[in-house]
Structure formats: C-alpha cells, structure tokens
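#struct-help
A.M.: can someone run this one for me? Single chain, 295 residues.
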Amino acid sequence: MKLIISLLLIALILGCSDFDNFYQGKRVGSKDLTGSSIVVAKIGGETITKEDLIKSLNGLPPRQRINYLSSPERLREYLDSFINQMVLYKEAEKMSIDKREKIKESLQNYERRLLIQALSQDIMDHQISEEEIKKYYEENPNSFKQVRVSEIFIKANPEQGISKDEARTIAWLVVNRANAGESFEELVKYFSDDITSKKRGGDFGYISRGSLPADIGNKIFNLKIGEISDPIETENGFIIIKVTEDPKSIPLDQVIGQIQVELRKKTFSDYTKKLREQIGVEIFEDNLKKISENG
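D.P.: on it. Structure tokens below:
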C-alpha cells in the first residue's frame, strides 16, 4: 500500500509540467519598483515570490492562466495547490522515498522518455524548405492523385445475422449485377449500408491515393471511368467502388502540410537509421522467434 502511495506521489509531481520551473524559479526572487522582494508565501525557510508565481502561471494554457488570474480567490487556489505539492515533495525527500529502487527506476524511465521526447522534437522541428517540398511533390506524383468515386458498402453485422462470409457473398452478387448492366445508383439504393453516400446515389466524393493503403489505392486508381471494383474487404464489411471521374493531380498548395509531415517522418527515419549504423545494432532473429513461440 505504501509503495502504491509513493508511486502516486511521484506521478503527481512529475505530472505537473510547471512544478519544476516554479520550484527552481522561486530561488531567483522578484522585486517591486522600490527594490523590495514581493513575497506571497513562505514554506519553512524558503519563499515564493510574485515572480515565481507569474513565471509558473505563464507556463499554463492561456485559458487556465486567465481563469486563475480572474480573482484573488482563484489565484489563492492555484498557489495552495503548489504549496501542497512542495510540502509533499519535501516530505518525500525527507523520508528518502527517492532512494527506493522502484522509485529510482521510475525516475530513470521518466528521464529517459523525457530525453527521447526532447531529441525527437528537435529532429521533427527540422525546417522544410520550399525547394524540398516542391521536389518531393514532383518526384512522387502518384501520391498526390485524387479520383471521384461512388461506393456501395455491405456491412457485416453478426448481431443481425449477417456474417463476414455472408456479406462477402452479397458484395459479389452486387458486383456481378453491376457488371451485367444494372444501374449502380439503383444497387446503391437497395444494398448500400452507408447512409451518407446512399443519400447521394453512392457518390463518395474525391479520395486521394496517398490516404489509402497501397494495395487498395492500386486497385482503385487502376480502374477506368465507369469500371466497378471487386469487393474490397474492410474491418466491418466490404466496399464496392465505381470510378466516376479520371484521376487528377491535387494542386501543390493543397498538400504542403501533408508533404511536410512525410518529409519530417523521413528525416526522423534517416536520423535513427544513421544512429543505429554508428552504434552498431544486431538482432538475433532466431532467439526472437523462440521467445515468440514460447510465449
């Protein structure tokens, strides 16, 4: 029970992102225009100054900061929460809770995660130039294609007695009837379980190749206008696609954000790959397989 309480205490302290700034910053002190320190509270022999309080408040989201500054009562509530954390922290130090193996391990894990997160953020903050964006766009034209489609969704619903196999059978029935010349819009009306697209005669709008898994994207973008896809399996059933317009390129200015994400992911991947090569990483596949087989 004591261990659980200790872990919760550490989690509480670590969970407050601005606690450390507040605790360290209060040693700086603050002075008014006459040079006197403005002390708002004392904890033992240590003081909390106006500057400490403002510095801590500035670390909060704007809405929370405004809320706490809206009245003396709310500001006092905020100050009290910090005082409680500080006295608990001092007591934990006094009891040498930070020397316990479980706590030390938790703190080490937290520090490791924090350092990894900081480095990862530094890598992902890499500035992407306009030239890099344009080059990626030009070298990956298929990733920025979009096509307009209509769809029929056949839902597998075991609760209503429609298994996945039965949904597959229905989907193939629909495909065969569509390929035999029946109106796709009429088939939508009688078979589709997608209420939204059903109201539009099956029109799903535009889909981009880059937003689809490669195997599904290839199936759809290889279709010509008017062609019907075979049933495409999803988690909840099957989708039948009819292409209604030729594929066209999405303008560069509409995909800049997407390209920036892809380039940052590539930067991160290249960076970690380089580190692995520098450090030297070897994976013993046979041993890994044995662990997996033995559970």
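A.M.: thanks! The radius of gyration is 30 Å.
D.P.: also worth noting: Residues 2-97 form one domain.
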